[in-house]
Amino acid sequence: MTTQELINQIKVKKSFLCIGLDVDLNKIPPHLLSEEDPIFAFNKAIIDATHHLAVAYKPNTAFYEAYGVKGWESLEKTIAYLNANHPEMYTIADAKRGDIGNTSKMYAQAFFEDLGFDSVTVAPYMGKDSVEPFLSFKNKHTILLALTSNAGAFDFQTQEINGKELYKQVLETSKTYENSENLMYVVGATKAEFLAEVRQIVPSSFLLVPGVGAQGGDLKSVCKYGMSPNVGLLINSSRGIIYASNNTDFAQAAAIKAKELQQQMEEILNHAG
Amino acid sequence: MTTQELINQIKVKKSFLCIGLDVDLNKIPPHLLSEEDPIFAFNKAIIDATHHLAVAYKPNTAFYEAYGVKGWESLEKTIAYLNANHPEMYTIADAKRGDIGNTSKMYAQAFFEDLGFDSVTVAPYMGKDSVEPFLSFKNKHTILLALTSNAGAFDFQTQEINGKELYKQVLETSKTYENSENLMYVVGATKAEFLAEVRQIVPSSFLLVPGVGAQGGDLKSVCKYGMSPNVGLLINSSRGIIYASNNTDFAQAAAIKAKELQQQMEEILNHAG
């Protein structure tokens, strides 16, 4: 999907919500456990109930790998279902990969070509030749970790490197990579003020913002500091939406939570426009 | 496996060789492609021919994910074969994972418990709470990326953070993590002098050293600068061994290449002892 198609979808739906499909068999409604593929059954119900309220879905691969071959099958079925039935949805493989060039290329092929995701999250530690193999795919995005929303972000990311915090150095250096127009960035919402600093370096790039809701970030301040003229934000919510209910009404409950966020977003977009 | 069991194995075999099982269907002997599971057939033959010369095997997960569910099955079969038939071998999932705590725990369970690997490689960018969930597993090792062997390592890893290169800061900070005795580190061999600097910070930790052979590092200088009193090195070779021949003699050819490295290691160990 092109960036413009994503922007168009945001305008049509008045939403920049991304729903994290982080499915834990210990947390889904027990009645689903008798299904042949409980993870896919859960995802399908969530997608069917929320696709008109969100613009993106983001399965975190850890939750699928945790169930081995069966988990990988659930991931394949989920992305195939999305691409066949809701091709307008933007899809993110939250995989946080990154390896030497040769090997990053294998990951890129797996997520972009074989599975058919629109984007994949990538860790920056190994630098240019670990990121560029992802960037070389046309109409696919590489979402680089810049500033994450966890406590450990302060171990290295906010430490000064040559007089500038590491996450800013990552933003600046990545702009010099080949096909850098295909970059987006993960920027956590735990301290919204950071978003203003991020915007000084990447004024128009899309930012994937986790940590609104369960991790404590606040939507309004994220938008205040992080929104670009083209919106430029994907706000992710996982547990707050998908585990809104543990009963047979889980999909409707998820839709209610997604609708709450979408309406807040619509208000912000109307105000901004 | 405990660190002491690994050290014992190194002494018995007079080898600290790790063989990277990075299987690419475009590179394996064509006659294997008619097998039901060509990747596993290749790995099994390589393992049977080389297990007495090496102490560790390291599949890089990218090469398995690239083949989707089938690839994941090949990975499961490979680690199950190793654990059943060669339980003395140290096993490394070269996965370079790392996510927020909750999610890292899912990865740790997948690789340590479900698949049964002895260790997994982890990227440090997300800090403490992304690494500690791996460290909490008893008799399992977390191999943290410190200084990698690719060109992109100079983008961030060797940049100074608070007056000290980032990779040194990663080494020092990680020593403060809970259960840090379960840490090993990836340190590339492209500049062996770096190993001397690494040893000043982690004098006895095991280092997994890629880049000897195909990536240009030299075994003798790696040992000169990097060996600890307990050896403390796992030298990885992938392509140089497993693709030594593209014919029906591929396993024997791999054994010849592995034997060459093992003999160099034996000489170094005799000299050091």
From TrEMBL, chains A, B:
EC number: 4.1.1.23
Species whose genome carries this gene: Mangrovimonas yunxiaonensis
Any one GO MF annotation of this record: orotidine-5'-phosphate decarboxylase activity
CDD domains according to UniProt: OMP_decarboxylase_like
Origin superkingdom: Bacteria
SMART domains linked to this entry: OMPdecase
Residue ranges of domain Orotidine 5'-phosphate decarboxylase in the record: 16-254
Entry keyword annotation includes Lyase: yes
Pathways involved: Pyrimidine metabolism; UMP biosynthesis via de novo pathway; UMP from orotate: step 2/2
Family affiliation: Belongs to the OMP decarboxylase family. Type 2 subfamily.
GO biological process, one term: 'de novo' UMP biosynthetic process
Keyword Lyase set for record: yes
Matches recorded under InterPro entries: Aldolase_TIM (IPR013785), OMPdecase_type-2 (IPR011995), OMPdeCOase_dom (IPR001754), RibuloseP-bd_barrel (IPR011060)
Reaction(s) catalysed by this chain's protein: orotidine 5'-phosphate + H(+) = UMP + CO2
UniProt name for this protein: Orotidine 5'-phosphate decarboxylase
Active site: K96 (proton donor)
Pfam families: OMPdecase (PF00215)
